[in-house]
Amino acid sequence: MPQGQPTTVPDDGLTTRARRNLPVLAVHTGPGKGKSTAAFGMALRAWNQGFDIGVFQFVKSAKWKVGEEAAFRRLGALHTEHGVGGPVEWHKMGAGWSWARKQGTEQDHAAAAADGWAEIKRRLAAERHDFYVLDEFTYPLKWGWIPVDEVIEVLTARPGTQHVVITGRDAPAALIEAADLVTEMTKIKHPMDAGRKGQKGIEW
């Protein structure tokens, strides 16, 4: 894609503007660091365009303090108070539809994941948000808690121009095939390889 130009232009009868406004399904996967970070970077751009942002974290506990959450909550407040950017909703364990792997049975976690996906389906059908981040959503797919085929069917048939970004390792092949944008994060080196634990400002 030299200078942002597509390598081919499909004969689909759409204008350049119409094609540019098509909704994007993106997947950030792979063993490397930065999958969620990249998704939140995209969400930041979307917020700046006035998009309605919905973030759904599927693995992190409510006790885990995520730096991006604090920042996006402030951005949401900025929109509410001053009309800047777009509205923001952030849902996770204790405030939405997620689970902590150390608490409850596997059946409990699977049920919570299914409830979360059901809520996202309702929101997609209602065109509730313009931009969705389904953070670490590949894991309930990998564990068989949410049917991959159903997810692909719902996402590919979603109405309007709702953008969806999914993060997590081991994205199913069918999801990768259905996505418009797929990035694989490949680890070359990581501080943990040298025995260093996560650091504030880097991991959270």
UniProtKB/TrEMBL annotation:
> Keyword set for this entry?
Transferase
| Source domain of life | Bacteria
Q: Does Repeat show up as a keyword for this record?
A: no
A molecular-function term among this protein's GO annotations = corrinoid adenosyltransferase activity
Tell me the GO BP annotations in alphabetical order: cobalamin biosynthetic process
Report the InterPro entries cross-referenced here.
CblAdoTrfase_CobA, P-loop_NTPase
Per the record, a Pfam family? CobA_CobO_BtuR
Q: Which SUPFAM superfamilies has this protein been placed in?
A: P-loop containing nucleoside triphosphate hydrolases (SSF52540)
EC number of the protein: 2.5.1.17
The cross-references to PANTHER family, in alphabetical order and at most eight, read: CORRINOID ADENOSYLTRANSFERASE
The name of this protein is Cob(I)alamin adenolsyltransferase/cobinamide ATP-dependent adenolsyltransferase
- Record organism: Mycolicibacterium thermoresistibile (strain ATCC 19527 / DSM 44167 / CIP 105390 / JCM 6362 / NCTC 10409 / 316) (Mycobacterium thermoresistibile)
